[in-house]
Structure formats: C-alpha cells, structure tokens
Design brief:
alpha/beta, 6-stranded parallel sheet, 6 helices, 6 strands, about 35% helix, globular
Length: about 160
C-alpha cells in the first residue's frame, strides 16, 4: 500500500500490527471493522461513528480491489482501493486504514488482535469471522434501506438509459 499514506494513517499489514501493539501498550482500546466500502453511505458513516465510540482508535480494514471483485462480482469495485482508503481517512471517526487481500479478515485479525470487533447486525454472532481474536464483539444494527447495492440499483434505475 505504498504511496497511499495520508498523514501516515494508511498502513501496510506489518505497519498496522506494530502500530496496534504500540497503541495497546499505551493503554489505548483498539476497535476494528472491515468491509468493501465501495460506495460510502449513511449506514457506513453510522457504523464508523458507533465503532469509534467503543474505543480510542478505529481501524477500518478494506478488501483489496481483487478480493472485492471476487466477493461482489467482476463489475466491482466501482471505486479503487486507494481512493476508498483516502475517502475513509477523510472521516473524523476513522484513524487508520489497512487493505487486506483475502476473502475474509480472519488472518488480519489474528495478526492485529484488536480489542473490539464491530460488524453489521446482519451477521449472527456465530458468523462473525475472527471473533476469537478479540476481547469483545459488537453487532451494529443495519440502517434500513442504506446499502451499496441499493445505491447501485437507484443509479441504474435513474440513469441506466442513454436517453437521460
């Protein structure tokens, strides 16, 4: 993730692991969430705000372009990982961004071992990957009607025709 650092807050996995260890040693509570975050919407912003309130430092892990495409299909991402990271780092509640290339964040969570893991309420506790590597798991209620898929469908509905 070179040439991406925004005030040294977009870190490689190795850098993020070192930073988490330093933060925890300093008594900081580290919160972690992850996702594609291809098009930011109110649901994401609400999640980040709540996540930040659960600790001192919020790390947002984003799927790499390749892993996002594998998860969501060949037409995604709509926004590349470098731009997604920059958008996220412009938010007051987001302290760090790290990109991961796997389909799930399990390996990254095993490496980082944050204090709190927060995921959307559409996941059952038993489905939250990597929960064994954190002290606390928090499920955040989904903001009804707010999703990337809904945004894409709305754009296609309104602008899909070349007649516009």
């Amino acid at each position: 993730m070179k040439n991406l650092n925004v005030k040294d807050r977009a870190l490689t996995r190795k850098e993020m692991k070192t930073e988490v260890q330093k933060l925890q040693k300093a008594g900081k509570r580290v919160v972690f969430t992850n996702g594609c975050f291809d098009l930011l919407h109110l649901g994401h912003i609400s999640l980040f705000k709540k996540a930040k309130s659960l600790g001192d430092v919020l790390i947002v892990a984003i799927n790499s372009d390749k892993s996002l495409s594998c998860l969501k299909g060949p037409k995604r991402p709509l926004v590349g990982e470098k731009d997604r990271a920059r958008f996220l780092l412009s938010l007051k509640s987001v302290d760090y961004v790290v990109v991961f290339g796997e389909q799930t964040p399990k390996k990254l969570l095993r490496e980082l071992r944050p204090d709190v893991l927060i995921k959307g309420g559409d996941y059952k506790l038993s489905e939250i990957i990597g929960s064994e590597y954190v002290r606390r798991v928090y499920r955040f209620p989904i903001v009804k009607g707010k999703s990337t898929t809904n945004l894409i469908n709305l754009i296609v509905e309104r602008y899909g025709s070349k007649k516009n």
